[in-house]
Each structure stands twice: as C-alpha cells, then as structure tokens.
Amino acid sequence: MSVLLCDSNCELWHSRLKELGIDYISMPYSYNGEEYCYDCGENTDFGKFYSVVRGGAVPKTMALNPENYKEILNPYFAAGQDVLYISFSKAMSGTFSQLDKALEELKKQFPERKCTVFNTNSISLGAGIQVEAAAEMKKNGASDEEILNFLKDFTNKVAVYFVVDDLMHLKRGGRLSGAAAVAGTVLGLKPVITVNASGGLSVCEKIVGRKKAIKALAEKVINELSKEGENYKVYIVDADCGADGDLLAEKIKAARPFAKTERQIVGPVIGAHCGPGTLGVIFIADKRPVALEG
Q1: Residues facing residue 163 across a β-bridge
Q2: Cβ(39)–Cβ(26) under 8 Å?
Q3: CA 221 to CA 225: how far, in whole Å?
Q4: CA separation for the pair 37, 44 (Å, rounded)
Q5: Can you tell me the distance from the alpha carbon of 4 to that of 242, in angstroms, rounded to the nearest whole number?
Q6: DSSP letters along 149-187, please?
C-alpha cells in the first residue's frame, strides 16, 4: 500500500488537500529574521507577508535537510507504507539532493520500503493540477503504476504562464540575469514567463505595460485551453493583486464560459521569488508552451 504525498510548493489549498486525503511536505521560507513553513493557506498571514515585502523586506526560501526528510518519511515506512511523492520541479531547488541522501539512509533501515518521486517539472498549481489529477485517480482505485503512466503524458500538457510586476525579484532569486532585469525595468517590459519542459523558466512573449500583459494572459487560456482541459480547473493566481486577478478571470470567462476557473492567492514560498503583483494562469493545453527564441 502506498501513500500519496506532495509538497506545499504545489500550492493546492489546504481544504482541497484534506478533501483529497493528501499529505504534504511544508516548504520553508523566512523574512525579517523569522522562519516559517507554508501550510497551504490554512493559517498563513498573506497580508502581512506581502506588506513587508512591499516595504522592502527580502524573503528567502531554504532547502530541507536530510534529517527533515527522514522525519517526514520515517512514519510511513515504519507503518509498512510506500510513498508516491509528486514533487515540484527538481530544476528549481537543491532540496532534492537532500531528499536523495535521506532515502539512502532510510533504505538501510527499511530495505523493503520505497519512495517513488515523480517530477512534475512545474511549480505552484502547475504541479498542483498534476497532484490533483493523481489523487482523483487514486481515490478511484488506480495503482501507482497507472498513475505514473498517466502523469508521464499529462505533465506535457500543463501550461503555466505568468507575469511579474517587478523583474528584480526574479533577479534576486537567480531566475533572471541582472542585465535583463534592469533592461526590462527601464523599458517597462512585462515578459510572459512559462515553465518549460525541463522544469525551468523561459520567456515566451514580451509585452509592454500591465494592461496588455493581463490581456495576453487571458488570450493564452482562451486560445490554448484544450478540449481535454475543459475537464480540469483553470487556475488564475495572484500575488496580492486581487483586482487584477479578478479582471483576468472575467476576461477568460467571457470568452470561455464553460472553463472551470478558480481563483487563488500565491503563497509566500513562490511569492518570495516572483514578488507582489505577479499574475498567472495554469491550465491544460494540447502541449506545454514553447519558449521565445532570441
């Protein structure tokens, strides 16, 4: 018997995780000298977090260490349970090398147990939509093998697009070069960024101005939401810019009235890298987005 596990970087809301019966690993972040672990919105003070970041605080995210992972996984193995862990993109964190060390040590103690990790090559609800689909399959009696076979194809259809309000947040997190961040800021660029097939970030379109960026995000969903995608949620997420997120959702619903849109705020771990004012859409397309060349 296996347990389905994810991490809070998938950003599924805490009530949805409970509804699906999924356990999750809380990923850490800190600001103003205090460390927290994201609880998928259950007791998170989003207002305080984004307020202090807007005020100049620089939040940080951290990898878990092997002892953390051993503490998380030991109870499952001790109870005779295997683990199917559907993770956020391995390309975005060094935490998975720490997980590997923990699993090596746990294997000595529990040689008959296993932890299978599926890399979604995505982040936020780009990972969450895959966790959600896997959990629904598991509830309907699917085996781990059936779930993994499904995800290998499904992951290639997950479209994630977002725009940030301040490119310097991506620069501080090492996701964008300093020169590109400065140039983009001076020119007023709002590049539309996607999560590529390797689980990294790529620019897929260059937009000037906030209003045009919101329109561009709406058009991504309107034009690319697949027939299969109509069976899944279209997530519209915002990092403390709810009015813009609502406007984006309205534009999508006006053109695609049968889309199952759902609004959600971006959590502090993801928000630490993209910053306040970020807007994003996550949905199922025919294939993952393609990066802009040049």
Answers
A1: 279
A2: yes
A3: 5
A4: 9
A5: 32
A6: HHHHHHGGGEEEEEE-S-HHHHHHTTSS-HHHHHHHHHH
Bridge partners (DSSP) listed for residue 60: 30
In whole angstroms, what is the distance from residue 163 CA to residue 169 CA?
A: 12
- Asked if residue 6 lies in contact with residue 12, where contact means CB atoms within 8 angstroms, the answer is yes
C-alpha–C-alpha distance, residues 151 and 84, integer Å: 12
Residues across the chain? 294
Collapsing DSSP states into helix, strand and coil, what is residue 204?
strand
In this structure, what are the phi and psi dihedrals at residue 265, rounded to the nearest 5 degrees?
-85, 150
DSSP character for 285? -
The radius of gyration of the chain's CA atoms, rounded to the nearest angstrom, is: 19
32 in Cβ contact with 162 (< 8 Å): no
* pLDDT tens per residue, range 154-184: 999 999 999 998 765 554 544 444 433 333 4
> What's the token pair of residue 9?
């970087």
Report whether 283 contacts 235 (CB < 8 A). yes
- For all residues of the chain together, what is the average pLDDT? 91
pLDDT class of 291 with cuts at 50, 70, 90:
confident
Instruction: Please choose, from the candidates 86, 67, 68, 103, the residue with its C-alpha nearest in 3D space to the C-alpha of residue 23.
Output: 86
The model scores a pTM over 0.70: yes
What angle do helix axes 210-224 and 242-255 make, rounded to 10 degrees? 40
* Contact criterion met (CB below 8 Å) for 244 and 281: no
Contact, 158 vs 126, CB < 8 A?
A: yes
- DSSP string covering 29-77: EEETTEEEE--TTSS--HHHHHHHHHTT---EE-PPPHHHHHHHHHHHH
Whole-number Å distance between alpha carbons of 255 and 248: 11
